[in-house]
Amino acid sequence: LAERTNLAGVQHILLVLSGKGGVGKSTLSTELALALRNAGKRVGILDVDLCGPSIPRMLRAQDSAVHQCDSGWVPVLVGQDRAIALMSIGFLLERTDDAVVWRGPKKNALIKQFVTDVAWGDLDFLIVDTPPGTSDEHISTVEALRPHRLLGAVLVTTPQ
Amino acid sequence: AEAAELRARLRAVRHTVLVLSGKGGVGKSTFSALLAHGLAADENKQVALLDIDICGPSIPKIMGLEGEQVHQSGSGWSPVYVEENLGVMSVGFLLSSPDDAVIWRGPKKNGLIKQFLRDVDWGEVDYLIVDTPPGTSDEHLSIVQYLSATHIDGAIIVTTPQEVSLQDVRKEINFCRKVKLPIIGVVENMSGFVCPKCKNESQIFPPTTGGAEKMCQNLNVSLLGKVPLDPQIGKSCDSGQSFLAEAPESPATLSYRNIIQRIQEYCEQQHLEEEKIM
Predict the structure, then answer these.
(1) How confident is the model at residue B182 (pLDDT cuts 50, 70, 90)?
(2) Which end of chain A has fewer CB atoms within 10 angstroms, the N or the C?
């Protein structure tokens, strides 16, 4: 029931994917969120890149901390008007240089929590930024999001 | 017993280096391939290149070996040879089509990595280069764990100049320290671009926080070198040719060669020191 509550208010969920690293997924996720916000939409970003979370720095939120409320974790409000809701593992690290050296099962557990335990509220768009590859993070994210309004995936590449 | 098996298989490997980055797309595979070509230029050296990027194996294409298959013999899996003294292994050779996605969770990836180390008949090897995927996860933990059966000379960490990359690379450096993996040094790729027409230099990925140089100073690791952007690098990778051979006059080639030499010196030096101790 908590699952339904936390994502029930989200109208569209968009995944940003690539097989390849370093092509601009996080950059695109950030720009997409900012552009949608500019167009008056309510936007959230879920950063499931556990090993290399780039979104907090891109939105100048690298020093933010997360808090809990009754329905779960409260996303950090970022952007110029603090109106974009962001959740990233980056916020849970004690120091930004700490490596998250986890094997698949532990990553999967955290992703599930991110999807079900973040109090997103009412959003028009939730953008999910992913790490490169087709492994644990991707499988777990898609599995956890499938019961919800998963709009689709945007694939990012470079020309070569 | 497993550890003994691995130890036996890797006994004939003199030097092992890992090519790492926290960040994707910075040029690990490109560098691994050029390091392999560079070291194999000496016909008397036997070089092995192991690609443990299971989801995005770039090495087959970069080495011009797409479409090759792995053969089995009595002594194990045979690496695919680019030259007589340069053998390659990658999951890419096990796929029926290069577009096949390998959608595996951690444990299955670990299993294949162990197989690569245990079942591939590398023979006598002077340099084993291991190309890794981005991140600090299963593949990285497993390779360090399995290679503890032999000796790892160290890790080469690849980055690009911008803070978004360095941020992830600092984590990788911390990973190396956590698992007691010596760091040979850092390579900064895509470090400036010199226009072939007007010869002006531009910073395509500006080092807004001081680039790899500052990071290396702060973290007390060696900066092996900076490699400028050269569009020929990407082209050579796409066509499976050695950039060093195709563009011998490029400033990037000069940088790569210097870096490769420093790595060689590091490995040889280690060897000498060990022999002294023994």
Answers:
(1) very high
(2) N
Cβ neighbours, 10 Å, residue B192: 19
In this structure, is residue A4 part of a structural domain? no
- Burial class from Cβ neighbours inside 10 Å (0-12, 13-18, 19+) for residue B69 reads exposed
CA distance A76 to chain B (A): 20
Q: Residue B30: which of A136, A21, A138, A94 has the closest Cα? A: A21
Q: Looking at this protein, which amino acid is placed at residue A70?
A: D
**pTM summary value:** 0.93
Interface-testing mutation among A47, A100, A135, A137, with chain B (most B C-beta atoms within 10 A): A135
- This complex has an ipTM of 0.86
Compare all CA atoms of chain B with the CA of A60 and give the residue at the minimum distance.
B164
**Residues B105/A139, Cβ–Cβ less than 8 Å:** yes
- Say yes or no for a CB contact (<8 Å) between B171 and A97: yes
A150: confidence class by pLDDT, cuts 50, 70, 90 = confident
Query: At CA A59, angle to CA A54 and CA A65, rounded to 5?
Result: 80
Identify each DSSP E strand in B62-169 by its residue range: 71-73, 76-78, 80-83, 86-90, 125-131, 154-159
pLDDT higher than threshold 70 for residue A3:
no
Taking the Cβ of residue A152 and every Cβ of chain B, the question of whether any pair is shorter than 8 Å is answered with no
What CATH number is attached to the domain comprising B8?
3.40.50.300
Q: Please identify among residues 105-124 of chain A the ones whose CB lies closer than 8 Å to any CB of chain B.
A: 105, 107-108
Q: Does residue A24 lie within any of the structural domains?
A: yes
Q: Where are the alpha helices (H) located in A24-103, listed in sequence order?
A: 25-38, 55-58
Would A80 be classed as within a structural domain? Answer: yes
d(CA A93, CA B180): 21
Buried b (16+ CB within 10 A) or exposed e, B237-256: beeebbbbeebeebebbebb
Is the CB of A51 inside 8 Å of chain B's CB atoms? Answer: yes
